[in-house]
Design brief:
5-stranded mixed β-sheet, mainly beta, 11 strands, Rieske Iron-sulfur Protein, 3-stranded antiparallel β-sheet, 131 residues, 0% helix
Length: 131
Amino acid sequence: MEKYWVARKDEIIEGACKLVSVRGIEFGIFKVQGEFYAWRNVCPHFGAPVCKGAITSTRLPSNVYEYKLGREDEILRCPWHGWEFDLITGEHLVDPSVKLRRGKLENPEDGRENLEKGELETLTEDIYVWL
């Protein structure tokens, strides 16, 4: 496996995506609640560039003409057909068995690993993808 520098931590802001390409594989790098996530830029529905979609929230039950939002900046909406995915788990909001293809995130500072396929590593102020 080789390590590829993709960004500095301060370049990734909540509510936005940084698209990076590593050896021809495109990833969207996201920061959600202070944690970093790398998702393959491929929607499981029809292969759309999902990371180019809107980062949004869910709507909570509310009165008529009242819009209460929940999970702000945690939901990614596919630009082609509007499928919505949880940016933390990658799960489709309606059918959790449908998931985004994930990059593997490893934070050596706390030893925690999560995500799959490819490895996103945060060292000091830099973010690397291992392939």
